[in-house]
């Protein structure tokens, strides 16, 4: 009997469509069915590096539908599992006339002990939905903004898997090496926790990668890229990381229309027709995506009623040459700028890396960029690069030109220069392992502009790093670093902001609620026993 290896995952949904993603243990026909509702949609698997996947697209659903489903593989029902204690998984489409709730977070270590990583916010969230049913508010969307897996900080279970397939000490030491290693990372993250597996089967999920999905400080600089590509093991690592991301995460972010026109998806399916394997096609694509960022767009945007969500790739699409640095390459920035338009009630811009950092960190990163670029002489440029990599100074503030470009677009939207101004413009981010809210204070706009950070889902900072970031969060800590940036001829930021809520350092998940022109956010953290409790709440508009 064919078995599910991973999934089912409910991925892209709209008001009338839904997508189910699965991995199976052999080539097969996969169907999503509900006999009472006349639902029966299917797809053949495609194969890459000996692993088998399918995306089943369901159309013709009603807006706001809640349709229980089963997964049938080659005529046998494989989901729900026999004796399951969980409620039936559902296809959950969006309601254009209702409130929109987007729950999000980042940085999730799994597996691991409670003593080391604390209670898992995602598991606690799943338990609330399982136990509360219709009596609790469900998210319409789950957005995971980076570090869904840790390819360079391994669990004991992952180390055991690696020992089973390669010699001790084989490079890269204590890290994922290739596509096969990545498949096991995803299995550990999304299969072995039954609550999370059920959650992903019944809540529409969207994702974007951050550095640990590939490697710490991924694409921090041109120098970093040169150092990595000089390693003999890097090609298998980067192609395995990007190729697996394309399958396990990116394909489900795309709408059915986008997938239908995607040349890589067509090439992979064509190569795996019958008994073929598309591994070579996937590797070629992944290597080109890394070496030629403009060849692939990982960012995406979806409109849901009067809300536009833009999810920005701030890792793979960077412009990194000896002459220029950009958080996004030129094509990617043009695409982002085109998406930043008015005429919506709410504009959400999700980036794994926070756009607005505490002032001390922002000025330190902008100063470091100038220093590494030679503002203090060529002798100090090398030191600046070492500091950048050692201290992870590679957020939006470390790409000064990109920061200013985005600010100009957001201010234009907020002033109504690109159509009627939204009520709110919010950046949704993770990465830094604590949560907060920052509000833009200058220049004035009709829209309320804010940065909402929720991190980690499960990977808290240890004591000394908490203390350092708590100090950096204070307003007074920013002045010395602004003085250094000014000495390096870095202009003052084009916008000003202040931290108004937080910082909170516990594992957490946040939910943004959008109702008409109103927007609010709630952060929750798992307590002892794994139940969620409120950590913070803020009103953005309304």
From TrEMBL:
Residues 1-90 form the DUF7800 domain. Pfam families: DUF7800 (PF25077), PhoD (PF09423). Residues 139-467 form the PhoD-like phosphatase metallophosphatase domain. SUPFAM superfamilies: Metallo-dependent phosphatases. It comes from the Bacteria. Coiled coil: none annotated. This is Alkaline phosphatase D family protein. It comes from Actinomadura meridiana.
């Amino acid at each position: 009997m064919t078995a599910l290896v991973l999934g089912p995952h409910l991925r892209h949904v709209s008001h009338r469509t839904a997508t189910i993603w699965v991995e199976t243990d052999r080539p097969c026909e996969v169907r999503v069915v509900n006999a009472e509702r006349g639902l029966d949609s299917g797809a053949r698997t495609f194969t890459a590096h000996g692993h088998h996947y399918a995306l089943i697209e369901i159309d013709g659903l009603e807006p706001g539908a809640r349709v229980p489903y089963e997964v049938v593989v080659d005529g046998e029902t494989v989901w729900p599992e026999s004796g399951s204690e969980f409620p039936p998984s559902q296809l959950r489409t969006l309601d254009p006339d209702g409130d929109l709730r987007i729950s999000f977070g980042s940085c999730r270590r799994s597996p691991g002990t409670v003593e080391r990583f604390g209670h898992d916010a995602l598991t606690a969230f799943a338990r609330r939905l399982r136990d509360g049913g219709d009596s609790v508010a469900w998210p319409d969307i789950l957005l995971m903004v980076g570090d869904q897996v840790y390819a360079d900080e391994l669990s004991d279970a992952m180390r055991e898997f690696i020992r089973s397939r390669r010699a001790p000490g084989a490079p890269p030491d204590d890290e994922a090496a290739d596509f096969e290693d990545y498949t096991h990372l995803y299995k550990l993250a999304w299969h072995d926790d039954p609550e999370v597996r059920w959650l992903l089967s019944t809540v529409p999920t969207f994702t974007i990668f951050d550095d640990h999905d590939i490697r710490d400080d991924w694409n921090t600089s041109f120098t970093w890229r040169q150092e990595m590509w000089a390693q003999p093991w890097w090609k298998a690592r980067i192609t395995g990381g990007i190729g697996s991301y394309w399958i396990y995460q990116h394909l489900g972010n795309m709408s059915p229309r986008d997938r239908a026109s995607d040349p890589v998806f067509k090439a992979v399916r064509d190569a795996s027709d019958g008994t073929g394997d598309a591994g070579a096609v996937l590797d070629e694509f992944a290597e080109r995506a890394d070496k030629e960022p403009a060849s692939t767009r990982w960012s995406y945007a979806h409109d849901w009623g009067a809300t536009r969500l833009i999810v920005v790739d701030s890792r793979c699409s960077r412009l990194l040459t000896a002459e220029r640095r950009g958080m996004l390459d030129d094509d990617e920035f043009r695409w982002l700028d085109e998406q930043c338009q008015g005429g919506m009630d709410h504009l959400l811009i999700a980036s794994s890396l926070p756009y607005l950092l505490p002032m001390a960190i922002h000025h330190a990163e902008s100063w470091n960029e100038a220093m590494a670029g030679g503002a203090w002489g060529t002798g100090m440029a090398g030191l600046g690069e070492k500091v950048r990599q050692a201290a992870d100074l590679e957020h939006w503030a470390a790409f000064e030109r990109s920061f200013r470009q985005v600010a100009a677009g957001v201010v234009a939207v907020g002033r109504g220069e690109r159509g009627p101004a939204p009520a709110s413009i919010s950046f949704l981010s993770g990465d830094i392992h604590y949560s907060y809210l920052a509000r833009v204070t200058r220049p004035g706009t009709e829209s309320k502009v804010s940065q909402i950070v929720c991190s980690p889902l499960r990977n808290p900072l240890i004591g000394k790093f908490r203390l350092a970031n708590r100090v950096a969060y204070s307003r007074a800590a920013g002045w010395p670093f602004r003085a250094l940036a000014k000495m390096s001829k870095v202009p003052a930021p084009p916008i000003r902001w202040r931290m108004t809520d937080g910082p909170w350092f516990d594992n957490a998940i946040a939910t943004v609620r959008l109702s008409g022109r109103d927007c609010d956010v709630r952060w929750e953290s798992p307590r002892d026993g794994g139940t969620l409790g409120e950590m913070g709440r803020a009103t953005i508009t309304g």
